[in-house]
Amino acid sequence: MSTPTVPSSHTPSRRAFLKQTLVAGAAGAGLSAVGADRTLARDDESDDRLTKGDAALLRFAAAAEILESDFWIQYNELGGIQDAEVPGGFGNLLYTAKLENLDEDFPQYIHDNTDDEITHFTFLNAYLESHGARPVDLEPFRTLQGSKATGSSGQLRLTNLMQLTLDTSWWTRYRSDARNPDLDPSFKFPQAVPDLSKGKFTAIPRTDGDLSPDAHLQAIANTAAFHMPTIEQGGNSLYPSLAQRATSVEVLRILISIGPTETMHFQTWSDKAGAAVSPPLAPLTDPTNGLKFPDLTTPPLDGETFTPNLIMPEPCPFLSRKLPKCSIIRPTETRGAAMGALAFLTDMGLFAGQSPKFFEFMHNLAVAADAAVRMED
């Protein structure tokens, strides 16, 4: 991407020195299959083939990571740090400032999360190719118009961040010590921000017209702050769910190694979301559409179920209520995990405007992943 960069007003993060330099060559060249040297995917040069099921698991994971990379790049263009690792866009100072109201390191976290997701799909596609399996290429579906606000690269997108309907029940699900969605699949966990589940809201400025009034732009930043953990908790559950179907120990290793990074993302963004529902930013009402962010530190929402700073999972029933409670990732039921993840992403409006062929392609990937069966030696 040739768009010149404009220095951000964001000062270097106190955590920035912890960032490892990762290869993310696909960031500036689109999110298609990469032509990585196939011998780099393994220490040896074995050309053993993946089982059909293992290939399907990795292909679905790769597709999910490509889609994640696409929307994280959009966030980074407007509110992250643009550099050689994650190029594209040149930042939007007003939007970035609203994100920094939630945490001064918000741009650094966006950058690092974006970089992580790019490396995930790049690795997964390269691994698939190295074992004679087809990588995932979603480039034919890059047809959606993104933000036209200052800072955007203006390139076509795979995902839509401007018509989101967010299920924020993960907030109370992870604070519940009595319920587990695997054991209580029909239980409706309360929403942290009920309004986000009832309408369609943008998480990025659509045009420069969204840069004011001030409360409107802060509400957009707050929506992003809740979209980020909403997405990452999906990956947090997806990887252990898929891993239970893997046959190859190496494929299992891949899934259980990438999965915990999604959990790290989830906990980080859970903390940032907490700032959007705490003073001094909450309560907040968007004057343009009435979207309300409640103050979850005041009665009757100030109990353990809603307290913003409880970002570690409460112990809950696991496997059987006859066993002691345990602090766990939830849910991790493997049946229908891929289709469930696809439905979750679709229902939030992330694919609003996508073609029927896109949905057919993703549906087929999910069906194949859910059909994977762990084969005994």
Can you describe this structure in just a few lines?
The chain is mostly helical. It has 8 helices and 2 strands.
Major β-sheet, in short?
2 strands, antiparallel
Q: How many structural units, i.e. domains?
A: 1
Work out the helicity level: 40-55%
Number of strands: 2
Low-confidence runs: 1-47
Number of helices: 8
> Measured on Cα atoms, how large is the radius of gyration?
20 Å
Percent of residues in beta strands: under 5%
User: Terminal Cα separation, in Å?
Assistant: 48 Å
Order of strands across the biggest sheet?
1-2
SSE order, as H and E?
Answer: HHHHHHEEHH
Helix/strand class: mainly alpha
Q: Specify the overall morphology.
A: globular
Structure in words:
A hairpin with a 6-residue loop joins strand 1 (284-285) and strand 2. Strands 1-2 form a two-stranded antiparallel ribbon. Helices cover 40% and strands 1% of the residues. It has helices spanning 52-79, 93-102, 106-130, 170-173, 214-243, 249-276, 337-347, 356-370; strands at residues 284-285, 292-293. It has one domain. It is globular, with a radius of gyration of 20 Å. It contains 8 helices and 2 strands. The protein has 377 residues and is mainly α.
Topology:
Layout: H1 52-79, H2 93-102, H3 106-130, H4 170-173, H5 214-243, H6 249-276, E1 284-285, E2 292-293, H7 337-347, H8 356-370
Antiparallel strand pairs: 1-2
Helix pairs in contact: 1-3, 1-8, 2-5, 3-6, 5-6, 5-7, 7-8
Characteristics:
disordered N terminus, 8 helices, mainly alpha, 377 residues, globular, two-stranded antiparallel sheet
